[in-house]
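The protein record minuted underneath.
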Amino acid sequence: MAKGRAFTRQALRDWGWGETETSEDTLLLVSELLTNASLHAHGCHELVLTADETALRIEVHDGTTALPVRHPAPRPGIPGGRGLYIVERLSDRWGTHAYESGKAVWAEVEASRLEYGMTAQR
């Protein structure tokens, strides 16, 4: 997960999106997607980041076709069951697509949030 976060942090900086609250949320989003792949899908096979003028898209590919299931409600004090809630909360859109040998879980963050997000308080 550390390599995925570092890769994402550098990509955000390269694209001029490195110093906003939304960029920090994006790093948490990547961590959650990678953690879910590790815990539920035998690990991440590929992390793909793509960006255009409208959105940043994060895709985590794994080797299982089993789609993620969002728990009805995480229970206070019990670990687990919050990953997809975090993904849903931090992204503007998310979803999955299965293919022959696995699936991708993806999330998108609007470019406008990354460009004009409030900078961190100093």
The chain has one domain: 2-69+80-116.
